[in-house]
Amino acid sequence: MIIVDNALKQRQAEGRPIRVALVGAGFMGRGVVNQVVNSVPGMDLVAIANRTVSKARDAYEQAGVTGVVEADDAAAVERAISAGTPVVSASYEAVVDAGQVEAVIEATGNTEYGAHVVVRAIEAGKHVVLLNAEVDGTAGLALRTRAEKAGVVYTGADGDQPGVQMNLLRFVRSIGVTPLVAGNIKGLQDEYRNPTTQEGFARKWGQDPYMVTSFADGTKVSFEQALVANAAGFTVERRGMRGADHHGHVDELTGKYDVERLKELGGVVDYVVGAKPGPGVYVLGTHDDPKQQHYLNLYKLGEGPLYSFYTPYHLCHFEVPLTVARAVLFRDAAIVPGDTVTVEVVTTAKTDLAAGRTIDRLGGYDTFGVAERYDVTKAQDLLPMGVAEGCVLTRDVKKDEVLTYADVVLPEGRLIDALRAEQAAILAR
After folding, report:
1. What average pLDDT does range 114-139 have in this prediction?
2. In degrees to the nearest 10, what's the CA dihedral of 50, 54, 59, 60?
3. 321: cis peptide before it, omega within 30°?
4. pLDDT at 1
5. Does this model's pTM top 0.90?
6. Residue range 339-345: mean pLDDT, rounded
7. Which strand ranges, in their side-by-side order, compose the sheet holding 18-23?
8. What sign results for the dihedral spanned by CA atoms 96, 102, 105, 106?
9. CA distance 109 to 247
């Protein structure tokens, strides 16, 4: 979105910077704070909410911001914004309800809490930018539908791999190529990693061991690829995707797929481990025009029938402000669920689990998520990974067994379950 930079410069010149609030001051949230504060003219990060409010204050201070005040309600947040004073709060409600906030970045990574933040922001008439693939992959269509009714944009983020893939898909389609594979390049995949095995890596980079584990055990890539599938109308070839080891260049993947099968499926999402260049994303597509095939060969994309396009990096928090600008200034989403759900992430036992056990967090010791076709998930009543935390097992479960709703008792009164029901009603229309 090359036009975004000039649009932001214009807002800066007019003295009308986009006012954005952040909920969640973890590893990724802190990066967003630093980026907006120090590198994005035309945008002001006016407020940060975090349940541990000291972390919100630390995020500002690490970005070089001083004079931060604390507020407990929307009126106090409003006063701080009017005075040009950065404000922190333990209350996400106080921040998202503030009238001068134009957009909310949700970066908690928690499904239930994140659902509350998104719903509140939509009800308050704020555009929502998600750094929370888990909530989007669990109830994204319901949330998108609510946002449309409220007249606001609901979107995943540029820089996160799903957003990068969707940008690449849009580009590929715009030049007349039909995309058939959207892929994610990973460096590691081991379903049985846990917060203990990942503690050293997490400590080195200042990250949460559970979040790091969700990347290592495949839960995160399953959510990410589900988002792309649901946005693009793609599916998976099989439960868990192919997920092959491939230590060559992504261009070599053009010979690894059955093109007719891809066409029959209408396009698939996938991932590879170890490919170059990484960590990035790739799209493989076809072109039916022999004249254009001749040109694509001239331009070094090969003879087809599959042509390779890739982005060799994803820059996460660096690109998130671009999504905010796209939403606020152009009402354009980086990635948003389509009208149907094609892929979900289902809960799989990481180890033998006993009846009566309460399932722990995503990226924990108990379960990992795998991508599965929605029709299979529905027919078998499989338990979505995004609702698994806090569920109590009603029977013993063996390692690698996929859980169903019948295997658990859900916690009472959760918003995420209500949104799931809302989404099922939308799909049943």
Report:
1. 97
2. 110
3. no
4. 60
5. yes
6. 97
7. 69-70, 87-89, 43-49, 18-23, 103-106, 127-130, 154-156
8. positive
9. 30
